[in-house]
Amino acid sequence: MKARLLLPVLLATIASAGLASAQYKGGNEQPPAKQSAPADSTDASGHDAQTGRPETAEKVAPKITLTEEQAKSWIAKPVFSSDGKELGEVAAFKRSANNTVLEMHVLGTGETHVGVTPVQFKLENDRVVLTLTADQAKALPKVKKTLRKY
Questions:
Q1: pLDDT tens track for 79-108
Q2: From CA 61, how far away is CA 43, in angstroms rounded?
Q3: CB neighbourhood size of 143 (10 A)
Q4: Which is deepest, 57, 70, 105, 108, by most CB within 10 Å?
């Protein structure tokens, strides 16, 4: 009785193995290469498809640290949008006790201050470039001028 039950299972296993090997016969032929995922895609488990790291709801902010002297040197430097428009100048930095930048204030036209977080800007040579377009930057909420200049 057991032999009768095992025989169909054994035959099915052999048949499927033979079918799989028959698909790749022909000498040097290799199985199709796995295509890489688009750079901004995630897999079903919520992980980045290319790096395998867990996908977060918001990109991790780069850690920017500035000493008091370095922060002072950035005051009045021009601030540009990601689409190349000059928006204003650096007005102030909010820093933690260990010099990590928490926020930067931009002084725009009409003496308007807006706050941006480190994920929203890059310090580049003699200018600051936002990761936002000019239109997105104009939509940022206004902040009070309560920060020290550095």
A1: 999 999 999 999 999 999 999 999 999 998
A2: 23
A3: 18
A4: 105
Query: Which pair of structure tokens corresponds to residue 2?
Result: 């057991």
DSSP 114: E
Exposed, middle or buried: residue 82 (CB in 10 Å: 0-12, 13-18, 19+)? middle
68-138: CATH topology is SH3 type barrels. (2.30.30)
In the block, tokens 């057991």 appear at 2
Are 126 and 142 contacting, i.e. CB atoms less than 8 angstroms apart? no
pTM comes to 0.58
Segments making up each domain of the chain, as ranges:
68-138
Q: Could you tell me if 102 and 117 are in contact, meaning their C-beta atoms sit under 8 angstroms apart?
A: yes
- The torsion angles phi and psi of 122, rounded to 5 degrees, stand at -130, 140
Q: Which one-letter DSSP state was computed for residue 88?
A: E
Question: What CA–CA distance (Å, rounded) separates 84 from 52?
Answer: 33
pLDDT bracket for residue 45 (50, 70, 90): very low
Listed in sequence order, the residues at least 6 apart from 121 whose beta carbon sits closer than 8 Å to its beta carbon are: 79, 104, 128, 129, 130, 131
